[in-house]
Amino acid sequence: WDGAQGATAPPFFAMVAQRHMFEYGTTEEMMAAVSEKNHRFANSNPNAQFYEKTFSREKLRQLPWVAPPLRLGDCSSMTDGAAAVVLVAEELAAQYTDTPVWIRGTGQYSDFHNLAHAGSLTEWTGLRRAAQEALRSARLTIHDVDFAEIHDCFTISEIVAYEALGLCAAGQGGPFVLDGQTDIGGKIVVNPRGGLLGCGHPLGATGIAQAVEVFQQIAQQVPATRQVPRPHVALVHNLSGSANVHSVMIYSREAAA
């Protein structure tokens, strides 16, 4: 009955944002910091919908409401797009590139069927468990990850994802981005291609586009303005529905030992 009651994507994530604000004091400025960062990265990504366009936090906070407290700049734009990767067996990789990127671990988890069954709006157990499984299979920890591609369909989703992944404590996702910890020079770079907010969200192509960014970052084929310093390990997160399904993959420059 979610859809019949108006629980499409913007209202659902608006409820996540409202609850996060109530529980932890998260602010519109913190959400705008996510959007500003991702649009700044997209500014130097020719494949991004918002290529060569910049948005200040002040401008973002003046945009129209979509579903309060989410404004237009808090929402990714559904768009046309395509992405592709070449996936080969380990022994064939050298035939295609001198800089292969290896899939080290995967995890997927669904913890509720629909919004009515969500145990918490601000604690994404599915993402936490999917990430734990992916890191376990890669024999790595979250502290080994140099950068992450997170499914920022809305600014609040990136903030909640920081917390579910263990990049910061519960309720600290807002201050974490506001302090620059997810920018180049911070603790971990998040969405250096511009994310869904800056690149647009072509739905089925989004996850593969994230994988393409991982390859280009590790091969150091992106502009210096968004190049992650010495990248070795990347985490990619995708979600579906009302954040009830989460998938995580771990990539690295080196093959598993």
Automatic annotation (TrEMBL):
The keyword Calcium does not apply. GO terms for molecular function: acyltransferase activity. The keyword Acyltransferase applies. Keywords: Acyltransferase, Transferase. Pfam families: Thiolase_C_1. Residues 107-253 form the Thiolase C-terminal domain. This is Propanoyl-CoA C-acyltransferase. It comes from mine drainage metagenome.
